[in-house]
Specification:
Layout: E1 2-7, H1 13-24, E2 30-34, E3 50-53, H2 60-71, E4 75-77, H3 80-85, H4 88-98, E5 105-108, H5 131-138, E6 142-146, E7 156-158, H6 161-168, E8 176-180, E9 186-193, E10 197-202, H7 222-239, E11 243-251, E12 254-259, H8 269-272, H9 274-294, H10 306-350
Length: about 350
């Protein structure tokens, strides 16, 4: 029997619907349940083929639990090792390399020094920073937001250099992004599951949460939706997220990826609406069952993005090259005595 578990916090509608959907399908030797942890020893088997993670970003104990489970062969959605390393500035950098449009963005050091650091800790920084160049490129109004985080926490709209300085003082030790404002004609939020299942939803980010998915304006074209789907798949496959949402702001016919690091995306029935909720429940259940069937006990069953897999493959090629060079040297050294022996034999014969 393979078990699919879900790890969650305060949300109610999605976890129960997810478990019920899987169990109601009557798959042979597959069952879903809420995870219960009574103790955690190192290198212990979690007992689950698949775990859907909805809360470990807020609970460090759960993150450690998931990494241990992954090492022992559990498929974790999403990969806890990658999620621990990921952040929004890196995502933007990767998007640029992948050819997906993103707003112009600068990374800012924290307004307050991190705990246990002093003036000498920042001797590599040029102070003051070149604010004028940054402000000229980004323009105003602009957005300032944490380089790692979500849920619209500590997000500021700044309208001038003076407004920026005042609000930056409020951010304490947070490392922030300064990002160009995209004045959009259309806005979308996109579910992406398993790097293949996509649902594009018109979205109004500045409305109250319960109204954000209630948008009546039709998409500008089928071609726009196709482009958004292609960009979504490119980003999620590049990052390696099994369950993510990507937001796009469309300006002058160009969809800019605004936010695409949401590996525990909102899936509450009241927030996303009945149609979207039903789609995400059925699709995540389908994907969880697929992963349970393909899971191999004791092996690495995590999803690693194209960026990581490419880097590993390159490292493997370099290692193989070094190895073949290394092994070739002894062969050449061994061959030399044989040649010398052959020469001696020839001389002896001629004598």
């Amino acid at each position: 029997m393979k078990k699919i578990g879900i790890l969650f916090g305060m949300e109610n509608s999605f976890p129960q619907a997810f478990v019920d959907e899987i169990n109601n399908r009557g798959e042979k030797d597959i069952v879903a349940e809420f995870i219960k942890i009574d103790k955690l020893s190192q290198a212990s088997d979690s007992g689950y083929a698949v775990i859907f993670d909805r809360i470990s970003h807020d609970v460090p104990f759960y993150r450690a639990y998931l990494k241990n489970a992954a090492l022992m062969g559990t498929t974790i959605v999403n990969n806890p090792f990658w999620w621990s390393a990921d952040e929004k500035f890196f995502n933007n950098c990767l998007a640029v390399k992948l050819g997906v449009p993103v707003p112009k963005t600068y990374l800012l050091p924290s307004n307050e020094r991190p705990t246990d650091t002093g003036e000498n800790s920042f001797r590599n920084m040029v102070m003051p920073l070149d604010w004028e160049t940054m402000f000229a490129e980004i323009g105003f109004p602009a957005y300032m937001k944490p380089h790692a985080g979500g849920g619209w926490k500590s997000v500021y709209r700044v309208t001038s250099p003076e407004d920026f300085y005042e609000k930056h003082r409020e951010t304490g030790q947070l490392v922030m992004l300064l990002q160009e404002e995209i004045k959009y004609e259309e806005y979308y939020r996109v579910y992406c599951i398993g790097g293949k299942y996509v649902r594009i939803m018109p979205y109004a980010p500045h409305h109250e949460p319960h109204l954000r998915y209630q948008v009546d304006t039709p998409p500008s074209s089928e071609a726009m939706l196709n482009l958004i789907e292609a960009y979504t798949l490119t980003l999620c496959r590049g990052l390696g997220y099994d369950f993510n949402t990507v937001e796009f702001a469309v300006r002058d016919g160009v969809p800019y990826a605004i936010d695409f690091c949401n590996p525990a995306p909102d899936a509450d029935r009241k927030a996303v609406g009945e149609e979207n909720f039903n789609w995400v429940v059925k699709t995540t259940a389908t994907y969880a069952i697929e992963k349970a069937k393909s899971q191999v006990a004791g092996k690495d069953n995590l999803t690693w993005g194209n960026y990581i897999r490419g880097a590993v493959a390159e490292a493997g090629n370099n290692s193989a090259t070094r190895s073949s060079v290394k092994s070739a040297k002894p062969t050449a050294q061994k061959a030399a005595p044989k040649k010398a022996a052959a020469k001696k034999a020839t001389k002896a014969k001629s004598k």
